[in-house]
Amino acid sequence: MKTMKLWRIAFMMLAAFSLASCSSDDDNEDKVEQVTLYVSAETGTYQNVPDNNYVEGMLIKENGAANWECVSFMEITGFTYERGNEYELLVKKTTLANPPQDSGNVRYELIRIVSQKKIE
Length: 120
Prior knowledge:
Blueprint: H1 2-21, E1 31-47, E2 54-62, E3 69-71, E4 76-77, E5 85-95, E6 106-118
Parallel strand pairs: 4-6
Antiparallel strand pairs: 1-2, 1-5, 2-3, 5-6
């Protein structure tokens, strides 16, 4: 009788652990959100991964961020950077759950240009 009770408890624990491990697949989905992105009139340089050369790029930061990040001029799909202009953009930011090995995990797509100001 005691052995049967132990088997039932063991089976219930195994079933509970099995269900708990399959409870959420949220980590395997891309996260999509709209964010405000600022683009500086100044440019910077970043290290290009394939050949380790330093390349000129635009400086961007998300609303609330303290530091600028230098990225490729083609980082924001649908946006063409014009030297000497600063921008406020509304973009669709997609954080990839499973990014390619040779690329970053964030993608930006222009929704609209909120403001553009020529800096001289």
